[in-house]
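Handoff note, outgoing to incoming analyst
You'll be picking up this chain. Sequence as last confirmed:
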Amino acid sequence: MRRIAVIALNTFRENLRDKILYNLLFFALLLMGGSVLLADLTIMEHRRIVTDMGLATMNLAGVIIAAFVGIGLVGKEIERRTVYTILARPISRTQFIIGKYLGLVLTLLVNVTVMLAVFLMTLWMYKTPLHAALFQAVGLIFVELLLVTALALFFSTFSTTTLSAIMTLGVYVIGHLTTDLKGLAENSQNAAVQVVVAWLYYLCPNLDVLNVKGQASTNGIVDMSYVAVASMYGLLYAALLLTAACAVFRNRDF
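Most recent structure output, in case you need it:
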């Protein structure tokens, strides 16, 4: 555990030195602040717009950080050849992958906490009441980020950075369209389309189950049993991807 913790802390420090991370965080905070201005310019329910934009910005910024930082965790170490120095020490490849993953999770936790603090401050300034549904939505957003991070890390263990980015974002988009895919497969007359779409439906994670932002913006508290099952689903999927990433990296020649 100590070796994993050392790799995780080093990864966290490396991420903090990444300027892209700060740019994304600044952009996200700017969007949250700008949501108040946008709400004032519309005729719709102002508080709902501020809540919607705050949660959506937190989700989008987190996914971009998880995907684009996650795909570089392994690739950068191989390109710089620092992976040889690390693995020459008594550190297994599994410990290396898990340490890298936990380092990025810690980075995401800090970023989501900062964004949540600004989001709550924005709601307070706009006199929007705080309710439990908001925290349920943010909790499930973080579970989704854990899954996307595992996804990016898994792809980065056997492909290039560009391909990893494309595949991660592709699965992310499909993951939010799984219900539509199921309907498309049922209504399609083409057998090949039905097979491909059915495979995508069962293979890709159903990320829509982790999306309760709509309920949070209307103060609709989701049943805790649903939140628990959805969180368990996301965490199990992330654990499976992380296990697969460790297995692929153990057998990779470089």
